[in-house]
Design brief:
399 residues; binds adenosine-5'-diphosphate; 16 helices; 6-stranded parallel β-sheet; binds magnesium ion; Rossmann fold
Length: 399
């Protein structure tokens, strides 16, 4: 672990500002439907509280676009955190300002404050210096435990740090962040080989760049999900149009062809499950990618592809997986994703999952405990593996 963590600095009795990822899913009435992100911060919080730190938590929820919007209040998160932690959590209804400053200055040792949604202020995403300085109020130790937000240079993930340092304060990783950097860092520097990367999902534009950067790092790259079809079209396969989510992806895929032609360590689907509707009772049929009917679209990989991909996975010693193989949210199209998840669950390889929807699929299918690590970062885990320096990691002190 190249970065200092809360275990490397003195936090006893200190005022500690912790950036956490509490961007939890909620139902229409605001009830939290999955509190994993809150639970995952408990080791860091308990470590700090056992040492009588004065803990101030900051997070964002949703996209309130720089304005106060009660729909995105962190109040329900405060209530859930209080239950999980088994001690009071003081919720402040802003993240900066006179009242916040007063509360932070008077905070007793061994207590927790949760600040209101950082994104109620435009300064957060703009990484505004005045906003960052206000957040840094009274902070003696800055902790980033929000790996999922570390690929953005925002006020709470990057801009705040120089203001903390100005007063002699430290900037270190929380325990969750440290685990992410360690596990993903090992994939980058010393993966047990063969190292297989599986890429799928829907954000084709983003992930074409990822292929470019990972193709030399992986022994084998398996491509599935919606991103396969623009690539197949660029390669000249007929009748792909209905399977392509965004026409812009075809040009991007075409730009990838020279890179693919210069390598032979990648696989694309050779067959797919096609349908005319995204519905439980839809008509489905398997077809070779050479033989798509013009009126149907691909929603999952086919049995030949599943066989080929699981054969590759059987010999793997390290696997990184981002992006489902098909539209797994609808039952008839979940089979390919489930088959890959099952193959990873059976494997002795180190298995690392990144991406919100991929993680959701693994949880939903009951394979979560069989994986070595499920990253809390989607975009962040991809950028990290591409070898990019994440702004929220770069600002933390080297060990
Ligand atoms: P992650 O969140 O794991 O990074 P993405 O957000 O890129 O993954 O993509 C996940 C979405 O991709 C899922 O909602 C899934 O339904 C969708 N998807 C995957 N394959 C297909 C496909 N062939 N057609 C339509 N949607 C697909
Ligand atoms: Mg997603």
């Amino acid at each position: 672990m190249p970065k200092k963590t809360i275990q490397d600095v003195d936090v006893t009795g200190k005022r500690v500002f912790v950036r956490v990822d509490y961007n939890v899913p909620q139902d229409e009435s605001g009830n939290i439907t999955d509190d994993a992100r809150i639970r995952e911060t408990l080791p860091t919080l308990r470590y700090l509280l056992e040492r009588n730190a004065k803990v101030v938590l900051a997070a964002h929820l949703g996209r309130p676009k720089g304005k106060r919007d009660e729909k995105y209040t962190l109040q329900p998160v405060a209530a859930r955190l209080q239950e999980l932690l088994g001690q009071p959590v003081q919720f402040l209804n802003d993240c900066i300002g006179d009242e916040v400053q007063a509360a932070r200055e008077q905070q007793p040792a061994g207590t927790v404050i949760l600040l209101e949604n950082l994104r109620f202020h435009a300064g957060e995403e703009e990484n505004d210096a005045a906003f960052a300085r206000a957040l840094a109020t009274a902070t003696e130790v800055y902790v980033n435990d929000a790996f999922g937000a570390a690929h953005r240079a925002h006020a709470s993930t990057a801009g705040i740090v120089p203001f903390v340092r100005e007063r002699g304060g430290a900037a270190v990783a929380g325990l969750l962040m440290a685990k992410e950097i360690e596990v993903l860092g090992n994939l980058l520097t010393q993966p047990a080989r063969p190292f297989v990367v599986i890429l799928g999902g829907a954000k084709v534009g983003d992930k074409i760049g990822v292929i470019r950067n990972l193709i030399d790092k992986a022994d084998t790259l398996l491509i599935g999900g919606a991103m396969a079809y623009p690539i197949l079209k660029a390669m000249g396969k007929p009748n792909m149009d209905k399977s392509i989510l965004d026409p812009k992806d075809v040009a991007q895929a075409a730009s990838l062809l020279p890179i693919l032609q210069a390598h032979n360590n990648w696989r694309l689907p050779t067959d797919a499950l096609l349908t005319d509707r995204d519905a439980e009772d839809a008509h489905t049929e398997f077809r070779s990618v050479d033989n798509f009917p013009p009126d149907l679209f691909a929603m999952d990989i086919g049995p030949q592809t599943i066989q080929a991909y699981t054969d590759v996975l059987r010999d793997a010693k390290t696997v990184f997986w981002n992006g489902p193989m098909g539209r797994f949210e609808t039952k008839p199209f979940a089979y390919g994703t489930r088959a890959i998840a099952a193959a990873l669950a059976e494997s002795d390889a180190t298995t690392v999952i990144g991406g919100g929807d991929s993680a959701a699929a693994i949880h939903q299918m009951g394979f979560a405990d069989a994986m070595s690590h499920i990253s809390t970062g989607g975009g962040a885990s991809l950028e990290f593996l591409e070898g990019k320096e994440l702004p929220g990691v770069a600002v933390l002190e080297e060990r």
